[in-house]
Design goal:
By secondary structure, this protein is an alpha/beta fold. It contains 7 helices and 7 strands, in the order E-E-H-E-H-E-H-H-E-H-H-E-H-E. A 7-stranded mixed β-sheet has the order 1-2-3-4-5-6-7, covered by helices on one side. The structure holds iron/sulfur cluster.
């Protein structure tokens, strides 16, 4: 069984699903099996809620200020388990919870997710990736097609109502001009944007 909780550097992460509706050209999953303390992040099958809770019970999170849901998959593909795990962690530890997401949770679950995750989430980091729907489809190849981009923007706006810290991120595989367009879009939404280095 792959690691459900792993550390990378001095940070700790939850890897609760391998499902994802995208196939981003820069996805870290194509780089290898594991990351940080995890030999592999590929689950033989999706972990159950009980297995996720057992993994939390088997890991001492005291000493960490934050835990991030960020594995080899999109956390909102496992929304029920995400909610159970997030609430369970909050009930046991005084720790900040971050979700790294592709922002497609509403399309994946066919409902608005911001309020649902807002109950236990301190920070949400949403992958913006591109300045417009067409480029988003080229780079992230979502199964939902071009409507994905508007869904991400809508999700981000909703998150601002329920989650204290909302931010965008992108990987610098797009042009400087496109990064600038993303910056403007983020500014207009009053959401900070982090540009990350592409690492092979
Ligand atoms: S959304 Fe994230 S997990 Fe999914 S393919 Fe893109 S980078 Fe990989």
């Amino acid at each position: 069984m792959a690691d459900i909780i792993y550390t990378y550097g001095d940070k700790v992460y939850m890897n609760i699903t391998n499902r994802c509706p995208c196939r981003c050209s820069f996805c870290i999953r194509s780089n290898g099996e594991g990351l940080g303390s995890a030999e592999t992040l590929w689950h033989e099958r999706e972990p159950s809620a009980e297995e996720i809770i057992a993994a939390i019970d088997g890991f001492d999170l005291s000493g960490f200020q934050e835990i991030a849901f960020c594995g080899y998959g999109e956390p909102l593909c496992a929304l029920d388990n995400l909610v159970k795990a997030g609430n369970y962690i909050k009930s046991k530890y005084d720790i900040q919870i971050r979700i790294n997401t592709n922002g497609l949770g509403d399309l994946i679950n066919n409902k608005s997710c911001a309020k649902i995750i807002g109950g236990f989430t301190d920070t949400v980091s949403i992958s913006l990736n591109a300045p417009n729907p067409q480029r988003y489809v080229e780079l992230s190849r979502p199964s939902f097609g071009e409507k994905s981009f508007d869904a991400i923007i809508e999700f981000a706006k909703e998150c601002k109502k329920f989650i204290r810290t909302v931010r965008f991120s992108l990987v610098n595989v797009i042009s400087e001009q496109e990064i600038e367009e993303c910056r403007k879009l983020a500014r207009d939404l009053d959401i900070p944007l982090r540009v990350r280095e592409y690492t092979k």
